[in-house]
Amino acid sequence: MKIVKRSKKSRIRGARTCGYGFRQKHKGGKGNKGGSGMAGSGKRADHKKQKALRIAKSAGARNYFGKRGFTSSKTEKKREKKINLRDIVLKFNGEKEINLIGYKILGEGKGFKGEIKATSASKSAIEKMNNAGGKIIIANKKLQIKKEDK
Q1: pTM for this model (two decimals)
Q2: What is the pLDDT of residues 107-128, one digit of tens each?
Q3: Over 50: is that where the pLDDT of 143 sits?
Q4: 107-136 as b/e, with b when 16 or more CB fall inside 10 Å?
Q5: In whole angstroms, what is the distance from residue 134 CA to residue 116 CA?
Q6: Phi and psi for 141 in degrees, rounded to 5?
Q7: Alpha carbons 21 and 40: distance in angstroms, whole number
């Protein structure tokens, strides 16, 4: 038999609903607001759209909702890796032949005496390497396949 009953405050410590069941049941007439502020007013949501239009009018509300533009399969992004001459010097210090097929060589940094095999290179990178006594060999995968077939 319990002699002293624990207080409600200590019994409910850690509970989210504090004995009122579902969270929304004890909101004090607020109803279901769907979050505070502008929460739930995303680009593809209908919630709070009028409020968002009113608030974002000065910031260009017509750009806020809906999708804009398109990306065609023909205009796919180039996913070629890029590396600068400066980084090549730091990573491959002192090597004469460097194989970087799959990379585009960019011209930031100084050229060096050596040979770089790459998929492509910028004009400035080629010039810097030639001036320093090195060279960049551009290896084209399509051309290699055609030569092997013949």
Answers
A1: 0.45
A2: 999 999 999 999 999 999 999 9
A3: no
A4: bebebbebebbbbbbbeebbebbeeeebeb
A5: 8
A6: -60, -40
A7: 24
The Cβ of residue 54 has, within 10 Å, a number of other Cβ atoms equal to: 11
Does residue 62 sit in helix, strand or coil?
helix
Q: Rounded CA gap, 70 and 64, in Å?
A: 16
Is 119 within 8 Å of 139 (Cβ atoms)? yes
* Contacts for 21 with CB less than 8 Å, ≥ 6 apart: none
Q: Kindly list the structural domains of the chain, giving each domain's residue range(s) and its CATH number in brackets, ordered by start.
A: 81-149 (3.100.10.10)
Instruction: Provide the token pair at 121.
Output: 């290179």
| Alpha-carbon gap, residue 16 to 123, rounded angstroms | 65
CB 51 within 8 A of CB 39: no
Which structure tokens are listed for 34? 């769907």
